Amino acid sequence: MSDILLVEDHAGVRKLTLNRPDRKNSVSPELREELLAAIDEARSDDEIRCLVITGAGDAFCSGVDLGRSKVTKDASAGEQRAPDLRLVRESMKRGMQRVVTALWELDKPVIASVNGVAAGGGAQLALFCDLVIASESARFIEIFVKRGLAIDSGGGWLLPRLIGLPKAKELVFFGEPLSARDALDIGLINRVVPDDSLADATNEWASRLAAGPTRAIGFSKRLLNRAIDSDLAAALDEEAAVQALNSTSDDFKEGVRAFAEKRSPEFKGR
Question: CB count, 10 Å around CB of 54?
């Protein structure tokens, strides 16, 4: 890893810090690939039981680095030729869509610790995490319309599911900043804390998750995520299937023993 993504592992928690503060932690192609690699490593490492994503400086993430996009470079330079539509589609599929998909499908809990502005793809980066803790000074901006862009990075799929269609349209059509408190009020995020308490609040939740039954949490995440687009019968069938798989885990056996022995369980993430 280079210095554009800081990776810190401690007590079962992997903390990823986007480290381009001079660019408001916008996601360059290099940062995107390092993020994907770090997420993939967390998936395969049994010692990592929770993932935290945050930003360096006074921003969480300002989205994709438009200055590194050929399409936006041509547009800003007044390039008149028609864009290659195939190239645009492929660049989208290779870009932030891969990152948000990796977070959504990771079988471990992910916390976004939002320390400042989360705009465009940066807002989606936060919202595709399982839990979002924000500082009071944080802002969420679906800024695409202000750049003449349609919403992307999975936001068109996710936002209506989080806050309903009317509110999603309001945020997207106007592209105005949403304060952390307002984001909490509409159910977009989980928690707001004073700026100087963000690290402690994040660490507290991350430590609790890292001490939990990782497989059970991962299975529960899968059930909750897939239920969004599932009917009851399919959801119940999958619930039965994953519960059967989970019953083979050491943590399941430990949980049952601890219950019988009237003590707190000591989960190992296996």
Answer: 23
SS3 breakdown of the chain: % helix, strand, coil, rounded to 5? 55, 15, 30
Q: How far is CA 206 from CA 50, 51, 102, 106, in A?
A: 6, 8, 19, 15
| Cβ atoms 140, 188 nearer than 8 A | yes
Those residues whose C-beta lies under 8 Å from the C-beta of residue 253, and which sit 6 or more positions away, are: none
Give tens-digit pLDDT for 42-55: 999 999 999 999 99
CB contact at 8 A, 162 and 127: yes
Q: Is the dihedral of CA 147, 152, 156, 158 positive or negative?
A: negative
Domains present along the chain, CATH in parentheses: 5-210 (3.90.226.10), 214-260 (1.10.12)
- 16 closest CA partner among 134, 105, 129: 129
The CB-based long-range contact list for 144-148 (8 Å cut-off, 24+ gap) reads: 144/120, 144/172, 144/175, 145/172, 145/173, 145/174, 145/175, 146/175, 147/66, 147/120
Tens-digit pLDDT profile for residues 213-229:
999 999 999 999 999 88
CA pseudo-torsion sign 140, 66, 43, 105: positive
Where are the extended beta strands (E) located within 3-72? 5-10, 13-18, 50-55, 59-61
